[in-house]
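Methods — Computational structure assignment.
A single polypeptide chain was analysed. Its primary sequence is given first, followed by the predicted tertiary structure written as structure tokens.
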Amino acid sequence: MDLLPQTILGGGMIKLADCLPADRDAAVLIGRLALPDGPTPVLVRHGRVLDISRFAATVSEALADIDALDAADGQDLGSIEDLGLAADFAEASSGVPRLLAPVDLQCVKASGVTFAISAIERVIEERAQGHADRARDIREALQARIGADIASVKPGSKSAAELKAALISDGLWSQYLEVAIGPDAEIFTKSPALSAVGWGDKVGVRSDSDWNNPEPEIALVCDGRGRAVGATLGNDVNLRDFEGRSALLLGKAKDNNASCALGPFIRLFDDAFGLDDVRQAEISLEIEGRDGFTLSGQSSMSQISRDPLELVGQAIGKHHQYPDGFALMLGTMFAPVADRDAPGQGFTHKIGDRVTVSTPRLGALVNEVTTCDQAPAWTLGIAGLMHNLAERGLLRGAR
């Protein structure tokens, strides 16, 4: 996919204008800017950036009134091409307004093991007990035995139950295969409200992890009634060594400071872009290390085992409500296995890795890897945001 100019992948100055959807003129986008007064929801329509904070103080509130959003007025901040936003980690970016993660009060959920190849990789982690050097031999054995079988069955079906019985008989069953082909999807909380980082931010891995990777995904953004109203790109950073030691360490493997990146914007569903575009999307991943290491990969949404709306239905319903809405990361088929250092050691991140997740209709999400303890601390929570909005007279009772 030839979406990104060489200035992005070549390590130079990264500009937001280079990371917008290929059909940006047809796209209606919503996101958040860190302006001097505080976090501000913005709408990008016909190439113009509008401050819509007087229409809705948060993105969550704006998406709750999605029917009125398209006609919303706001202060014109200029052309998206001329806004001048640069990545926070890029040279000469100080003093430039930052683009925040495009969700705010929404909980960030994630669905795991939604592709056959990712199911195999989770079983590998489990059997390797978090040790990357054991993974290669286990991978070869599992792919030979269950690779084709697991890719061919519909989760929750009679054939899936029959495959489960056969794998149990062979001693190959795993809790990861249960969520891959069983009736219940794996849905977990990836990130609390307001904790996700955005385009151009640093993304974090724990300093005590030595086997980890990015997970390039599409996230559906839903309102409080569970309606999917748009989509964005995500990086569901994963610590393979932690989760591999025990699935009960999922929280430590997934939810850490700066470990969830979303952006650059939410693209709203309309006549030009809808769920079928998500279902057919090809998501690309590019990793560039300061050591000269490069890695490319793709994830094809057409190969997902469960339809995106089925995953939404398993995330919200009579058992779970999200009155402020939620973002749901849909999973990935990409799990990097290329050796970065010694043979058999596989891939793991290093400080300074440039990670680009992209697809033409959503643009590109670019982040740089650091450790969670060195990434900027998450300091603005819900109480702090409410105080800020009240001081700015943006809460509905104060307008």
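Note: Residues 1-11 have pLDDT under 50 and may be disordered.
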